[in-house]
Amino acid sequence: MPLMPHATPITLEDAASPAMNRSFYSWAALVAVGLLGLAAVSFMADRNLARLGVLGVGTDHLELEVSGQQWWWAIQYLGADPSEGFRTANEIHLPVNEPVHLRLRALDVIHSFWIPNLNGKKDLIPGRETDIELLPTRVGVYRGQCAEFCGAQHAHMAIYAVVEPRAAFERWRAQQQRAAFAPSDPLAQEGHRVFMKSACPLCHAILGTEAAGMSGPDLTHLASRRSIAGGTLAYSRANLTAWIANPQGPKPGNHMPQVNLNGDELQALVAYLDGLK
């Protein structure tokens, strides 16, 4: 049997065509450029966050305490004088181009504060206070969301940030610091009586009245907010009526009990609450 001639081994370089080589090196270069770009963006973001931290120290910056609970956000605006503070829920107002410091607390399970247009996520852990700093640079309304699964209605735990010029913010703050006006309309007056004799004051507070509950949202200026039920429903008189009549309908499993009211009592109560602006 004749011997086969000795075969020269074929290397990878011999097998690869020039076109394949060019594609490989182009792809490698593209990946390298992409990684360098991401590293540069990350570096600049870290620099900006560090700069924000420096801006927030020793300045007359706004300070808030935000408490997450199933499934809504309690907000306390703090002031140098306790009389300057006030409470609201599920909506914060911020002056544009000014640093803001938020103290974050969880009152039941782990939550996560996240307004994507303003900063990254920050967890709220029971028994431990965390914090985050914001520096909003554009006027607008930004929607936030709890970003850590916290139970059945996790998806319906939203928060809105309203960024506005300093003058508009000061007008809003002055309004929020005022006690609720006593109703003058007979229907709203009846609604106030319905509210005070029901279980509502056990959970909710209204500044200027005997209602001082803490387990539910402060209602002093309820009708000035963009949403109700932790961002589940846009604020309107119709949605407010439906929410009080059947809170388990739009948000099953939430902790607001159903208050047994007849039709006249419900309409009177809504008339009163709709006047809290």
Protein described:
- This protein has 277 residues and is α+β, with helices and mostly antiparallel strands.
- It has 3 domains: 24-55; 62-176, Cupredoxins -  blue copper proteins (Immunoglobulin-like); 186-273, Cupredoxins -  blue copper proteins (Immunoglobulin-like, Sandwich).
- 32% of the residues lie in helices and 21% in strands.
- It contains 7 helices and 12 strands.
- The strands form 4 sheets. A 5-stranded mixed β-sheet has the order 3-2-1-5-8.
- The longest helix is centred in the first third of the chain and has 38 residues, at 18-55.
- It is elongated.
Helices and strands, with pairings:
Blueprint: H1 12-15, H2 18-55, E1 62-69, E2 72-78, E3 86-89, E4 91-95, E5 100-106, E6 111-113, E7 122-124, E8 130-134, E9 140-145, E10 158-164, H3 166-177, H4 186-197, H5 200-203, E11 227-228, E12 233-234, H6 237-245, H7 263-273
Parallel strand pairs: 1-5, 4-10
Antiparallel strand pairs: 1-2, 2-3, 5-8, 6-7, 9-10, 11-12
Helix pairs in contact: 4-7, 6-7
Features:
3 domains, three-stranded mixed sheet, elongated, five-stranded mixed sheet, 32% helix, alpha+beta, Immunoglobulin-like, 12 strands, 277 residues, 21% strand, 7 helices
Strand percentage lies at: 15-25%
Number of strands: 12
What is the fold-level CATH name, i.e. the topology of the largest domain? Answer: Immunoglobulin-like
Question: Could you tell me the mean pLDDT?
Answer: 89
User: How far is it from the N-terminal to the C-terminal residue, by CA?
Assistant: 104 Å
Q: Uncertain runs with pLDDT below 50, 5 residues or more?
A: 53-58
How many discrete domains?
Answer: 3
Q: Return the string of H and E elements.
A: HHEEEEEEEEEEHHHEEHH
Give the spatial strand order of the biggest sheet: 3-2-1-5-8
CATH level-1 class of the largest domain: Mainly Beta
Mind telling me which CATH architecture of the largest domain this is? Sandwich
The CATH homologous superfamily of the largest domain: Cupredoxins -  blue copper proteins
- Provide the helix percentage: 25-40%
How many helix segments?
A: 7
Radius of gyration: 28 Å
